[in-house]
Amino acid sequence: MTEILSEFSKYAENAIEEENPTVQKLEKAGKKLAKLNIGDPARFFPTPKYIIDAYIKALKEGKTGYVDPEGIPELREAVSNRYKRLYSLDVNKDDGIFITHGVSEAFLFTNSMLVNPGDMAVMFAPYYTVSYSGFRIFGGEPLIQEYGEERDWSLDTDELETKIRRQMNEGKRIKYMAITNPSNPTGMVLGRKTLERIVEIAKNNDIVLVSDEIYDEVIFDGTEFTSIAQIAKGVPHIIYNGASKDLDSTGFRVGFMLIPGNDRVSETIKRKLVDFCAMRLCVSTPAQYAITEGINNIKEHRLEVTEFVKAIAERASFASKLINESEYMHVVPPRGAYYLFPKLDMSRLDLKTDKEFVHKLLEEEGVLLTRGSGFGGNDHVRLVALPSKETLAAAIEKIDKFCEGHSR
Amino acid sequence: MTEILSEFSKYAENAIEEENPTVQKLEKAGKKLAKLNIGDPARFFPTPKYIIDAYIKALKEGKTGYVDPEGIPELREAVSNRYKRLYSLDVNKDDGIFITHGVSEAFLFTNSMLVNPGDMAVMFAPYYTVSYSGFRIFGGEPLIQEYGEERDWSLDTDELETKIRRQMNEGKRIKYMAITNPSNPTGMVLGRKTLERIVEIAKNNDIVLVSDEIYDEVIFDGTEFTSIAQIAKGVPHIIYNGASKDLDSTGFRVGFMLIPGNDRVSETIKRKLVDFCAMRLCVSTPAQYAITEGINNIKEHRLEVTEFVKAIAERASFASKLINESEYMHVVPPRGAYYLFPKLDMSRLDLKTDKEFVHKLLEEEGVLLTRGSGFGGNDHVRLVALPSKETLAAAIEKIDKFCEGHSR
Question: Which of B114, B134, B278 sits opposite A4 (nearest CB)?
């Protein structure tokens, strides 16, 4: 039998989950682990009670069957109102809002819908790992532009435009430009001026903008967030968002896609998305009702999210300081999201790659991180800033001790 | 701008949902519709209370975060026990069981994992609509073998083998052979002898078997069901199943994949599936706990499913008789599942296609069916046998009246 797997399935991966077999082995042996690999707030902050209550109400009312493939109208309306409230944006619930199985499915739909083998997409590294692998499993060829870590993860947009032009002159088709803002894994927040340049480049080169803004309410004090939708009018753009991160309900699997435009490309995408949604029938019905309340109950939400973001900001700042006291790591403190993305000084360690670093750290110290190379950021690790300060301090101490033991 | 959509996205469709815009228009105008298009038991039979209770318990216990990408161990174990109980099958919960966002995601994983553009898969027509479109959006080229409607939807396996040989001689790669058993849309149940021939053909030609058995507990009296897993030992096979149909919980979006084999191909597929699961993080966490109880509470489940299947069998038999009294339609009565798939006598109607039939029937009589051509069965319609006899009788009377009005 010749190779059974498809050619592009070799790209299927998610670095965040790849140490699971080792985790299971260690836990089976009774080892207590510090799992700082996955951005799951529900492990550290209980999902707000008013959302749970709405979920239970939906179940008791018999909301258990199939619903609209694009999502229940109530939730699409809540999302529409949310964008009106936060960004003064008018997106009709029936024209450009699609509820998905988390942002994960938004990646899938976008790539399945747009990407032929050999098509390109612009990605800024470090990128969210599934943003990359989700594109590659459709045969896409990424055009990578790296953020400048030494310049606070800023973006050289002139270099970006030159790269794009070069590929287009060679006849390459660039289907979209992917942004994750705030960034996962770095926690950087793109400034308005940079975003305006990105929009300009997209416009000049007929490239669709795809912006994953799932952390848009997890912004630390003193930083301003701009949604691409506020400045991309007239340029086709797709926004990903969802309930997992600011409503602290990762396990409900409710995300959404917004296509605010009415240009020809946006209209084509919206029509096609209806078909993709229909093929998987619908997203969790009772969870959609829960998230409708989660968004609509503004008073409860504000109370919850304010406390939540304040706690994360403190933890991130605390952990950044500790990391920067280590002689083996350095981190640019994040401005939003849940993550720290320190650079490892590999020249001082007897380890070859960040992958080896992560695996051995788990085996030896019971601390689980995610390798930076999984995000296109070699010689880095990603850790979540969600646990308590005590847990973070203990974990960082262990990482430092591990580095000490592996110094050369 | 050149074409924005990918080449294969043109195949994205689900005939079951395609009349939704007309439905919305009619309902907005206050029209009451008989929707017999979608196999959603929760609209007619409440989801069992013991499952709802387990769901609520999970929510109250804070089961709201991410869990194992392959599914919670408790649910994988429940699935393992189910296959032991029903089919004397040994599949370890940690080796060959994967929880998915419904069977819809099982289609997606299989096709993304196995199909290169130009690869073939054998499909028996009429097939489940997403079985076909889900394959084609990856560039797959179906090799269709039609069931013989005039011979109770039986399969000519000799003709099948000849077709397969011909394609292989021409250098085509046939990746898998797809079965839906019991059949959606016909309700036919494949006999053991036919299944044995299918397994033999798969074995002789190195083709993976993919069997969608989501209706395996919805079998009418006097019919025996055989799972492909009972007879395909040694031949690589993937089984789809889930909670939607026999546990009456379509809106929870919990399905599963079983790969019982330990041959090289099955092992390769299992390893790769871990990556695909990881890319979308997990399936609804509280719903997985609910379905764990749904499967494990055998006593409650037996009570519920026995009543449920008895009711559906009666309704299907009742509706079959009524349909066969019409001079415009004929149906082979189903042996399982939820559906009737009557053939329309188009020669007697002033309508060109079953698509036109379905659309006009909806507009004129407010009865919503699904066009047979969406299942690879031209000049047919699919209707669900789930509503009450009164509703079915009223709908069939309207269909007959519609035919009368469109006779020529």
Answer: B114
Chain B CB within 8 Å of residue A162 CB: no
Of the candidate CATH numbers 3.40.605.10, 3.40.640.10, 3.40.50.11060, 3.40.30.10, the domain formed by B64-297 belongs to 3.40.640.10
Residue B10's pLDDT band (cuts 50, 70, 90): very high
pLDDT tens digits, one per residue of A277-296 = 999 999 999 999 999 999 99
Whether chain B has a CB inside 8 Å of the CB on A65: the answer is: yes
Q: Which top CATH class is A7-46+301-403?
A: alpha beta
For residue A4, give the chain B residue with the closest CA.
B114
* pLDDT value at B2 more than 90: no
- Which residues of chain A does B6 touch, with a Cβ-Cβ cutoff of 8 Å? 112-116, 119, 138
pLDDT band for position A1 (50/70/90)? very low
Tokens of A285: 């019905």
State the DSSP string of B56-105: HHHHHTT--S---TT--HHHHHHHHHHHHHHH-----TTSSEEEESHHHH
Cβ atoms within 10 Å of B265's Cβ, excluding its own: 17
| CA gap A397, B104 in Å, rounded | 45
Minimum Cα–Cα distance from A72: chain B residue? B251
Q: Which residues of A touch B291 (CB under 8 A)?
A: none
Smallest Cβ–Cβ distance between B63 and the set A115, A236, A251 belongs to: A251
Q: Do A17 and B108 touch (CB under 8 A)?
A: no
Contacting residues of B for A135, CB less than 8 Å apart = none
Q: What share of chain A is helix, strand, coil (3-state, %, to 5)?
A: 50, 15, 35
B46 shares contact with chain A (CB less than 8 Å): yes
CA A172 to chain centroid: 27
Specify the pLDDT at position B108: 98
Say what percent of chain A tops pLDDT 90.
Answer: 99
The Cβ of residue A404 has, within 10 Å, a number of other Cβ atoms equal to 12
**What mean pLDDT value characterizes chain A?**
97
Q: What is the ipTM of this complex?
A: 0.97
Cβ separation B5–A113 shorter than 8 A: yes
- Judged by CB atoms closer than 8 Å, whether chains meet at B5 and A272 is answered as yes
The number of C-alpha atoms within 13 Å of A128 and in the hemisphere containing its C-beta is 30
Burial class for B169, CB neighbours closer than 10 Å (0-12, 13-18, 19+):
exposed
Asked if B37 and B384 count as a contact pair (C-beta separation under 8 A), the reply is: yes
Contact B272 A18 (CB under 8 A): no
Q: Which residues on adjacent β-strands are paired with residue B98?
A: B257
Enumerate the CATH 3.90.1150.10 domain ranges in chain A, comma separated: 7-46+301-403
B281 with A250: Cβ contact below 8 A: yes
CATH 3.40.640.10 residue window(s) in chain A? 64-297
Instruction: Give the separation between CA A55 and CA B306, rounded to whole angstroms.
Output: 29
For chain B positions 231-270, those within 8 Å of chain A (CB to CB) are 236, 248-253, 264-265, 268-269
pLDDT tens profile A87-129: 999 999 999 999 999 999 999 999 999 999 999 999 999 999 9
Q: Is the pLDDT of residue A52 over 60?
A: yes
The reply to whether residue B272 touches residue A7, judged by beta carbons under 8 angstroms, is no
**What are the tokens at B389?**
């006899």
Q: What is the mean pLDDT of the segment spanning B18-31?
A: 96
Q: In chain A, what residues touch B130 (CB-CB under 8 Å)? A: 279-280
